Amino acid sequence: MTNNTGTVLDSYAMNGGDGAYSYTKNSYFQKASASIVEAKIREEITEKLDIKNLYSTSKTFCIADLGCSVGPNTFAAMHNVLEAMKHKYQLQDPTSKLPEFQVFYNDHASNDFNTLFASLPPERQYFAAGVPGSFYSRLFPESFLHFVHSSYALQWLSKIPEEVLDKNSPAWNKGRIHYTNAAQDVGNAYAAQFAKDVEMFLDARAKELVVGGMMALIIPSIPDGIPHSHVPSNVMFDLLGSILMDMAKEGIINESQVDTFNLPVYAVSPKEMKEITERNGYFSIGRIETAPLPNIAVQLGTRPYTIHLRAVIEGIISNHFGNKIIDELFDRLERKAEDHSDLQKASYTAGTQLFVVLTRK
Fold first, then answer.
1. 299 pLDDT higher than 80
2. What letters, b where the CB count within 10 A reaches 16 and e where it falls short, cover 126-164?
3. 3-state class of 115 per DSSP?
4. What's the pTM value of the predicted model, to 2 decimals?
5. In sequence order, what DSSP letters do the residues of 192-257 get, joined into one string?
6. Rounded CA gap, 109 and 87, in Å?
7. How many CB atoms lie within 10 A of CB 280?
8. Distance (Å, rounded) from C-alpha 46 to C-alpha 111?
9. End-to-end CA distance of the chain, in Å?
10. Residue 154 in 3-state DSSP?
């Protein structure tokens, strides 16, 4: 990221490999969150996806998981989708042979695809391929995909809103690294960037999905009318920002580094998501509903939860501040999160996860 453009580069992937701080070993939160809607995804496929009709126009049923990271969560999600599709196909045409399935795993080019492919389930009943690139642009040929899945990926903005890095803007986010508890102008800038990004995302998928194709999205959310400080991750981001300011006051880093750093993550409300989708016009809305998140801070303890966060954002922090502060930064975060565990527990309110199902018109 450069300080004048706010562009999010490919280097901001989840931690690769299978080490102690890898995403592979520290993504239980995302797995538990996605598992909450597994049955709903199966229900949507069974009740609304006309697999037989879609298959009549293609020899292969094509599925994409966008923002797949390194596994193993993506494999569990794809297994759930495929089992539902096979069940639906057999309901529609029990005498016919099952179609062949092709699954495309997508993430940024810097994603650890080596770990992903080394971990592919050997018993999988589908062909697998990797597709590097940003899902905010086109990734596949026109009318190519039949089903798109994305879990805990769309909250990542394509770039930092330029206004929050501009000293002359009322949205300049001095001394903070996120919109949580920041001025309203900062939150508005994040919301506007998210809306632009989702518009690009929907435009691209509208080209790639066949008519009648389905898309299932799982996104961190905030219930309508609830402060953004109630999102679990936002609580941690706010604590992290205060620690970075402490380190700046102690001379470990420069305060200007904090002023020019913002996390490109946004939690959307159901109302916002509905308005963006309706304005786009290419998709009919099957579901836009919220669900509670699992409280892993309580289930696992503060340290595992802090390590989970490190697996996700270590790369973006190292790129801006250097890697020498990482261990101390997350050690401090663990202690501070423990001291503020009441805030973390209170943030797990109903509706901090959004489940969206869209069908291509």
1. no
2. bebeebeebbbeebbeeebbbbbbbbbbbbbbbbbbebb
3. helix
4. 0.93
5. HHHHHHHHHHHHHHHHHEEEEEEEEEEEEB--TT--GGGSHHHHHHHHHHHHHHHHHHTTSS-HHH
6. 34
7. 17
8. 32
9. 37
10. coil
